[in-house]
Amino acid sequence: MIVLLLLGCGLQEENKENHFHLSLNGESDHWEVQHYKIKCTPKLFKAGDGKVIFKGKDNGSPEFYKINVHAVIDETDTIVQTKSVSGESKVNKIETGSIKGDTYVNREGKPVTFDEVSRVYMVIEWQEEQNTKRETIVLKG
Length: 141
Known about the structure:
This protein is mainly beta. It has one helix and ten strands. The protein has one helix spanning 2-17; strands at 20-27, 31-40, 45-48, 51-54, 64-73, 76-86, 93-95, 98-101, 117-128, 131-139. The strands form two sheets. Strands 1, 2, 3, 4, 7 and 8 form a six-stranded antiparallel beta sheet that branches.
């Protein structure tokens, strides 16, 4: 009976390791990221629902912007979300939207753990006064 109880506790601890929820923020020279969320369970991966705020001109209307969110998982750089818009759009505040899908797995084929995610960052490109600009924003909790 005690052995079964200990085994059950061990399994619960292993399960907790594969469940994590992050709320991330970051900043670069021109952009601020607020409340970008990542939720990972053994069966589900969800990312997004954050805001990206332009710190420059209030009347910015770029021809396009593109956001790529990367996670370095088990030493592999993976794009976990992409969003791009072209045409007439206000760049002052961007809602990232969200993506949802199957969980990511490590090299052994098991769901990733929090400890295997070493870095999350966003790369944003935008058009400003006929020039394409690009910045990288490290996201931290």
